[in-house]
Amino acid sequence: MDRRSIWIFHLNTGSCNGCDIEILDVLTPFHDVERLGAKLVGSPRHADVMLVTGPVTVKTAEAVRRAYEAVPHPKAVVAIGSCACSGGIFYDSYSTKGGVDNVIPVDIYVPGCPPRPEAIIHALAVMKGIAEMKVRREAYRE
Amino acid sequence: MRRVLKAAVETGVVTRPYPFVPSEVPPGFRGRPRIDFDNCIGCGACASACPPNAITIEEGDGFRRISLFLGRCNFCARCEEVCPVKAVKMTGEFELSSNNKEDLCQILELKMVRCSVCGRFFATERELKRAKEELEKKGIRVEEIVMCPECRERASANLESLARR
Q1: Residue B111: its chain A contacts at CB < 8 A?
Q2: pLDDT digits (tens, 9 = 90+) for B4-45
Q3: Is A135 in contact with B69 (Cβ distance < 8 A)?
Q4: Average pLDDT by consecutive 10-residue portion of chain A (142 residues)?
Q5: Using the beta-carbon criterion (under 8 Å), do A133 and B103 form an inter-chain contact?
Q6: CA B57 → CA A15, A28, B75, distances in Å?
Q7: What is the dihedral angle through the alpha carbons of A17, A19, A20, A26, rounded to the nearest 10 degrees?
Q8: Which residue would you say has higher pLDDT here, A16 or B145?
Q9: Maximum Cα–Cα distance for chain B, whole Å?
Q10: Would you state the pLDDT for residue A1?
Q11: Contact across the interface for B93 and A123, Cβ inside 8 Å
Q12: Residue ranges of the alpha helices (H) in A71-136?
């Protein structure tokens, strides 16, 4: 288990603000993610982890790339919400890149529209080694 | 000041102990949709209802492939609503974080049946079984359905023209 604190930078890349509100929720006393050492910082240069929401619009793609480069090593990217995971409902839109992983490498995907605050905490807990990943690929052939 | 402190003491700790204690979801919460592999007949109603096309249908080499990709799902439960056999259910699972997109997939492959006239694959075995059951419930006796809709149309048109003659 990594005992050190994770500092978070939150980047909105054209999200509808649903996921952003859930990230805000995670920081309230009710869920209080600072128990796990996570803290929201204002600049990517101070961050360890970048939380990215939104399907990455064409206009923001370059900014996302630059913000990712500004995060010092070692760094991780968490895609929050279905839009960030794969483009979501905007997956074939002309004005989006269809998911964060088409622009920068993503370490953890958190699907949900929006994900529950607990789901975001779960992703951070997974990164810290407190919780286990629960989803597995399921396939069946008749 | 005293009032504030009093209120704080009376309220106590509100912070939820998650992730150390599992979290309960409220009733009616729409978590991960799950396809029941044993019940699904592969009709594709969910795929055509799905707004972001998280459920897709492909056909190839005698199989119909129904795949659900959670990474694109927006948890609207339209699939649950339209499913004629109640095979898609929204579950309370919300801990879906994963480092691999493959883990967010659920894939079901169902055997298809060939049309006895044109030889083209046209429906899944389970679909035909279900159709037969539904017809029998209405009191209509059916033999095996082995003709695709196009061939059946053609066959009935031929019958009609014969009858006219």
Answers
A1: 142
A2: 999 989 988 888 888 888 888 899 899 999 999 999 999 999
A3: no
A4: 80 92 91 89 92 93 93 92 91 90 93 92 90 89 86
A5: yes
A6: 28, 42, 18
A7: 150
A8: A16
A9: 100
A10: 45
A11: no
A12: 82-86, 117-128
pTM of the model: 0.88
Residue A23 is encoded by which pair of tokens? Answer: 């990230």
Q: Could you tell me the CA-to-CA distances from A130 to A49, A75, A80, B98, B157 in Å, in that order? A: 17, 19, 19, 14, 67
The amino acid occupying position B51 is: P
Q: Note the residue count of chain B.
A: 165
Burial class (CB in 10 A: 0-12, 13-18, 19+), B65: middle
Among left, alpha and beta (phi > 0; psi -120 to 50; other), residue B149 is: alpha
User: What ipTM does the predicted assembly reach?
Assistant: 0.87
Beta carbons of A46 and A87 less than 8 angstroms apart = no
